[in-house]
Amino acid sequence: MEQEPNIKLTKLAHCAGCGAKVGAGVLAQLLGDIRTHRDPNLLVGFDKSDDASVYKVSDELALVQTVDFFPPIADDPYLFGQIAATNALSDVYAMGGEPKLALNLLCIPESMPKEAVHDLLRGGYDKVYEAGAIITGGHSILDEEPKYGLAVTGFVHPDRVLTNAGARPGDVLLFTKPLGIGVLTTAAKADLCPPEVLQQAYTLMTTLNKAARDCMVRYEVHACTDVTGFGFLGHAYEMAQGSGVALEIDTSAVDILPAALEFAKMGLLPEGMYRNRHYAEGAVDPGAVPLAVQDVLYDPQTAGGLLMAVAPGDADALYRDLQGAVPSAQWVGAVLPETEGGKRIILR
Amino acid sequence: MIDARGLSCPMPVVMVQKAVQADAPATLEVLLDNPCSVENVTRFAANSGYSVETHPADNDEYRLVLTKQ
């Protein structure tokens, strides 16, 4: 079957971007009984639900490896390629590393026009080059639903690995991108999102976390994660649980895209938001925070920002640096000691 | 009545929104077949001055009755 040359990529997708991710709770069950092998050089593996695995090669060098791919979240193939690459590279930045090598993962319908596939790949190559890394190969298969992403390898000093499990009571929480991307792309599926608002989401999804990472590594940061498919609260919950702490979030300080809040009130929420809520809400004290705000905090993000737990003495300086390097740095809360039977996340 | 069974989010809530905006019915019955749509329609209704009664049926289907407050 021949398709129109200007195909609408998202119409070929059941589920957009990181919203297509298997739920965190389900994933834990799927991995439940599988025996994992231990290796003393494996610094970060399955056990802490982290963003990437890290393997120590020498006292000076560790490898960071990650893979991420998903169905189209934008209609324009070049844009989708850029977003998928920005998202895949982000996991390396979240570990404090620098991406160096990448391999394409591509699934395409046989009928997809050659120019569209070419544009998609060009988007991926451009972002990977912008990150200072190179694409060295890849693998493509035929599939009814298009999907694209990359396996990325980076480097980090073994003593400077930033996991999501190192947050300490007293740390300050900083975050680097506005929330609401999943809500906006859901509204866009129903043609309800104005083009200029959607463009804002696209700009966010194609902004590398490189500048934020480059600021972060100059300071005493104890933990970091990138906020993607499990939403701000899903990833915050993983950080709190992995670190054995509680996180207090000042929701008035969290940058939420205004249109996303309006769409949330209208019930234009992606299925992934409900999966994330189901996964984390037992550990969240919502306080008096309005439902629509909570919903956006659970909204699955694609290529979202970095959430960092920073030593209190370095927080002011890093926050100032970040404000100069990334447009929307936010001081969103603090790390508290865990309490017996208490909630992991406290919303204020 | 709106039958949005077989449709995935956000189409069911968009159909309800259009029906409410068209002529603000006193009551509106909606048939759905996934929990995401039930939650989304419930949120829309609460923010649009409607109360919602949810009646789960067999086969993971739901009948919602929206009533103007």
Would you mind describing this structure in some detail?
The complex is a heterodimer of chains A (348) and B (69). By secondary structure, chain A is of the alpha+beta class. Chain A has 2 domains: 9-160, 60s Ribosomal Protein L30, Chain: A, CATH 3.30.1330; 172-347, Phosphoribosyl-aminoimidazole Synthetase, Chain A, domain 2. Chain A has 11 helices and 13 strands. Chain A has a 7-stranded mixed β-sheet with strand order 8-11-7-12-9-13-10, with helices on both faces. A 6-stranded mixed β-sheet of chain A has the order 1-2-3-6-4-5. The longest helix of chain A has 18 residues, at 77-94. In chain A, 53% of the residues are buried. The model of chain A is unreliable at 1-5 (pLDDT under 50). In chain B, strands 1-2-4-3 form a 4-stranded mixed β-sheet, with helices on one face. By secondary structure, chain B is of the alpha+beta class. Chain B starts with a strand and ends with a strand. Chain B contains 2 helices and 4 strands.
Could you provide a short overview of the structure?
Chain A is α+β, with helices and mostly antiparallel strands and 348 residues long.
Strands ordered across the widest β-sheet of chain A: 8-11-7-12-9-13-10
Q: How far is it from the N-terminal to the C-terminal residue of chain B, by CA?
A: 18 Å
CATH-level-2 architecture of chain B: 2-Layer Sandwich
Based on helices, strands and strand pairing, what is the structural class of chain A?
Answer: alpha+beta
When the domains of chain A are counted, the total is: 2
Percent in strands of chain B: 25-35%
* CATH arch. level architecture of the largest domain in chain A: Alpha-Beta Complex
Instruction: Quickly give the structural class of chain B.
Output: alpha+beta
Task: State the order of secondary-structure elements of chain B, H for helix, E for strand.
Answer: EHEHEE
- Name of the level-1 CATH class of chain B: Alpha Beta
Overall strand count of chain A = 13
Oligomeric state of shown chains: heterodimer
